[in-house]
Amino acid sequence: MVTSTDEELMLRFQTGDEAAFDALYERHAPALYRYFARVAGGRASAEDLLQTTFASVIRARDRFELGARFTPWLFTIAANAARDHLRQRQRAGLQEPLDGHELPGEFAPPGDPGLAARLEVALQRLPLAHREAVVLHHLMGFSFQELAEMLGTSSTAVRLRAHRGYTALRADLADLREDA
Amino acid sequence: MSPLDLRDADALAPSAQALARVRAQLAPELARPTRRWRREAALSTGALLGFTALLAGALAVGGQLTVVSPTRALSVALLAASLAAVGWLAVAPPRRWGRAAAVGSVAAVVAAVALRGAGQASASPQWLCTVSHLGADLLPIALALAALRTAAPTRARVLAAGCAAGLPGFILGELACGRGALHVLLFHLPAWGAALLLTAAIGPRLQPRSFAP
Questions:
Q1: Distances (CA, A) of A35 to A84, A105, A140, B89, B155
Q2: Which of A11, B51, B115, B188 could disulfide-pair with B184, CB 3.0 to 4.6 Å?
Q3: How far apart (Å, rounded) are the C-alpha atoms in residues B195 and B24?
Q4: Shortest CA gap B212–chain A (Å)
Q5: Predicted local confidence at residue A111, as pLDDT
Q6: Residue A3 dihedral angles phi and psi, to the nearest 5°
Q7: What is the sign, positive or negative, of the torsion defined by CA atoms of B33, B34, B38, B43?
Q8: Spans of chain B below 50 pLDDT
């Protein structure tokens, strides 16, 4: 069986093939959910943002153009939605979860719950621009060039954000290294 | 596990129920008809150009279309072409030449100032041009903001929409005002800049219909 690429599926979806949309949803929803849980700080936000992102894909399906790559396009939408969500939270005076107690227990993988929770809390402490760069580069595997295009900035600026993010994480988690 | 090695941690994986719930909530979106961006761009650009033509027509009917010369016709043609380009780009997905078109719009405005020369004297107060310009730009600003709402307000689109918002008033000035370059620099250009800045300030704060670039 030949598997269609994301781009082929998206082009089919543009012509009204709902099954192609379902295939794209099944492929990308889990990764997007993880991205939102890390960047926007929690499962409730992740679910809302997942819906917002795919609703944007549906509304703007016509804006995806031949020759473009689907995953960076999808994550550009996701990053825009996450930024807007966090901006609205900030305006409403809601804080992002910074305390480990506010994070759900499932953040911790089996075997080392304390470490995983510390990592996630440290990520949440980073400024959004740095967190976004670290998560998209390190965890989602995008190159700095792709990130620059997705975030509408230069490759140098993205590298700098990621570098600052990594430096802050190392400083925040220095005691873990000493224990090891 | 290194401090940054979270890739294998599947603790954040969504439940099948959560994914199914979100997918079910998307069903009404799928049922809606698609809005084609090219159609929206054509409508938006057409509205901006049509409104400008309407203003020019009103000036002609009211006997206010006082300045007719080849250089002024060239300025108006440059500005109208620029309005068409930035009006389209305010809606279009990002293009490599998107920013170049916005720069072209600025160049058209600068050319219009340069082509003015010494100009003619006028009895009306100079600030009247600024006020008329801003008044004529109110609807274009609203149209530019509506264009921005169609998708995520990227910098290039905000810039294009801002440039477009101030051009109808600028064209109006080219058709109705006979004063020289210094007057345009001091009383027309600031109005164009104000329309640009206002659109750029409000546009990114509006909730877009889609977060797509």
A1: 15, 17, 8, 31, 24
A2: B188
A3: 43
A4: 5
A5: 53
A6: -90, 130
A7: positive
A8: 1-5, 7-8
Look at residues B161, B11, B187, B2 and name the one whose alpha carbon lies nearest to residue B83. B161
Instruction: Give the mutation candidate from B2, B4, B8, B148 for the A interface (greatest A CB count, under 10 A).
Output: B4
**Going along chain A, which residue ranges are E strands?**
none
User: Do B176 and B121 form a contact (C-beta atoms < 8 A)?
Assistant: no
Check if the beta carbon of residue A21 is closer than 8 Å to that of residue A53.
no
Using CA atoms, how far residue A169 sits from A120, A147, B29, in Å, is 10, 20, 40
CB B145 within 8 A of CB B202: yes
Find the CB nearest A152 among B25, B155, B211: B155
Residue B3 CA from chain centroid, whole number: 47
**pLDDT tens digits, A119-174:** 778 888 888 889 889 888 888 888 898 888 888 788 899 999 999 998 998 888 87
Chain A hits for B207, CB-CB cut-off 8 Å, are 84
Give the number of residues written for chain B: 213
Q: What is the ipTM of this complex?
A: 0.80
At A77 the three-state DSSP class reads helix
Chain A neighbors of B9, CB-CB under 8 A: 109, 116
In this predicted structure, what is the pLDDT of residue A180? Answer: 52
